[in-house]
User: Fold this.
Amino acid sequence: MGDAGQPAWGVWLSRLEQGAPPGEVIEDALRWLLEATAAQVAVLFLPDPSGEQVEFASVVGERADELRGFRLRPADALVAPALLNREVWRYSAETYQEPIGAIATGIAVPLPSLPKSALALLNRPTPFDDAHLDLLEQIAAPIELLLRLQHAQTQLEQRERALGWLSRLPKRLGADLSLQHALETVESLMRKVAPEGGGVWLYDENRRMLLLATQYGGDALPEQFAPDELPPSWTDAPVETVWGGRRYRAYALALAEQPLGLLALALPADAPNALEWLPPLLGHIALTLSNALLYEQTAQRAQHMAKLYDLSLQLGETQSLREVLRLLCRTAHELIPHDHTVVYLPSRREPDRLAPVYVEPLSETLLAHSPDAQYSLPGWVYAFNAPIAAPDLEQHPQNLKEPLPGGFASALAAPLQVAERTLGAILLLTTTPREFTLSEVELLFTLANTGALRLHTLERTHA
Assistant:
């Protein structure tokens, strides 16, 4: 044994009081062990964040800079008994193991309460003895305390960073309440945490798909995907997933236990544990995006109501049935994206059928098709006074007995209804498949009622 005497606790504690990082004090303790035992290398093994490997977290002695940060599976390490079985490890034989190289003698002890961790000394000229083991065990517990202090300091620093971002959030958002501005603000935070790349996905209105709202970095991210494509536990805890060959850590965004979307950051981050200060902010991020979504939805609804109000004014001045239908179809195209609009009224020649009285844009196929007043999709809407959204028109049950003309993939229909009386139906068709949102269903229903009221007035006027 060397002549270093007892551990220099007073000096080390004084360094902590003066603001030295715990990691530096740990390395001071390792250097003292080298002097006290005449070993050539001292290594502190700690589990990596995944828990699947161990890392050469602190290394003092020969090739320290080369070894520091190296990772391997615990079972592959020469000190595996200390890492996996929490046993004292002793070694005295000539061997070679990467990345350390030649190993002649060694001794290691597990840290008292930290799994897959060990404090090891290697390559003393003669085998280590019980006195060296006593020193290792004497130093192991304080080193674990220093590690816990380091972890606590890291958490405090992360909280300070999080609080700093939160304190700047109102100023960053300012008076711009748009979703785009909120996403840009959130992205600025994400870039600090993980500059390699990341993205935010938000649920569509039907809550069936996650749609990409913003992204940064050079790698392509999926424009949309179903939530069941993620690991089942993604709503409860961060999960790792792979897109385009790169690993991402994904966090659920939720508000009042209601899922809002997903935030994902590329791994590895720019600094160790950098991602750990993000979870406390997820609720604030979700609230920021939820408020922006609500603002945009409210603004959009106000625009829609303004269009409907303008339509009602124009209809009030219109005495022509054809002009009423034209205004109705034009407004439908402005409010809800689709390809063809058809207005059906009861056929005068065939009471059990509906007549397509207006088609916009013109389609001879649709004009020539008079569906059954009950056993067809427009007929069901007319007969039962209820809207229908058919994203897969060909397979929709109300379109099987008497299907609409081919060439159309999706449909949305609503009754033209006044009080308890149904005057007809309005049908929107698309040539490519699409989901109609609940707000679009409600919007068409309101539009149809607005048009039906004018049709009813004209009907009474010309009766």
